[in-house]
Amino acid sequence: MRVTSFDLPGPVLFTPEPHFDARGFFTRTFDAQVAAEHGLDPTAFIQDSQSRSSRGVVRGMHGRSGAGEGKLVRCAHGAILDVLVDIRTGSATFGEQVSIRLDDQTFAHLYVPPGFLHGFQVLGEVADVCYRIDRAHDPSEDLAVRYDDPELAIDWPVPVGTMSERDLSAGTFAALQILLKTRERD
Ligand SMILES: Cc1cn([C@H]2C[C@H](O)[C@@H](COP(=O)(O)OP(=O)(O)O[C@H]3O[C@@H](C)C(=O)[C@@H](O)[C@H]3O)O2)c(=O)[nH]c1=O
After folding, report:
1. Which residue from 105, 127, 163, 172 lies 20 to 30 Å from 181 (Cα-Cα)?
2. Best substitution site from 52, 54, 59 to test ligand 1's pocket, by max atoms within 8 Å of Cβ?
3. What is the position in ligand 1's atom list of the atom closest to the CA of 61?
4. What are 48-59's pLDDT values in tens digits?
């Protein structure tokens, strides 16, 4: 399992070594020991989820207030561009973003730490995205920023397809920053 970090501190990419043969392939998708060696608590991931989306679909940009949410993301089928934005209060890289392709060829698994916005776009016909999260889902802690926010200026590689009402009505990054500052003061 290859482990890669980014210029932006926090996220970690775990890339396994799949075994291909005449039947197809076998790959490990998660290794608790490797995760622990890189500072993650493998026992923390208490909920697994999967979504399926068609070409161009954007889901995001989603975050979580309070203690946030650590997340392991992989694309089990197809290909996506996965995007993270640092919203950790006081972070030297606040507002900076990382984009990385996740697909069913490299089987890479991305760790998204608490304090990040997360979203993705489907690059092929269909993509299945699997997540493991370290806190149970609680919609009252949802944070969201527009996928087309002018300040973030995320470069989505294909024409944007279907989106949820929630994502289409999300506020700006500027509005999120005001919210975070207000919560910090209170
Ligand atoms: C995320 C989530 C949603 N749901 C429900 C709520 C809703 O009825 C339905 C669809 O939810 P959403 O529209 O929020 O799904 P979606 O837009 O796919 O939300 C996901 O987007 C990506 C980018 C992430 O990072 C995830 O953490 C999550 O926020 O599923 C759960 O029951 N548990 C969950 O953990």
Report:
1. 163
2. 59
3. 23
4. 999 999 999 999
Between the CA of 174 and the centroid of ligand 1 the distance, in Å, is 23
Q: CA-to-CA distance for 79 and 12, rounded, in angstroms?
A: 19
Taking CA atoms, 137 is separated from 11, 68, 116, 141, 179, in Å, by 20, 11, 16, 9, 21
* pTM for this model (two decimals): 0.96
Q: Which amino acid is at 9?
A: P
CATH superfamily, with its number, for domain 2-185: Jelly Rolls (2.60.120.10)
Please answer whether residues 77 and 126 qualify as being in contact, where contact means their C-beta atoms are separated by less than 8 angstroms.
Answer: yes
The CA radius of gyration of the chain, in Å to the nearest whole number, is 16
Residue 131 is a catalytic residue = yes
> How many percent of the chain have pLDDT more than 70?
100
Judged against a pLDDT cut of 80, whether residue 68 lies above it is answered with: yes
**Prediction ipTM score:** 0.97
**Catalytic pick from 62, 109, 111, 118?**
62
The helix (run of H) or strand (run of E) holding residue 51 is: strand 47-54
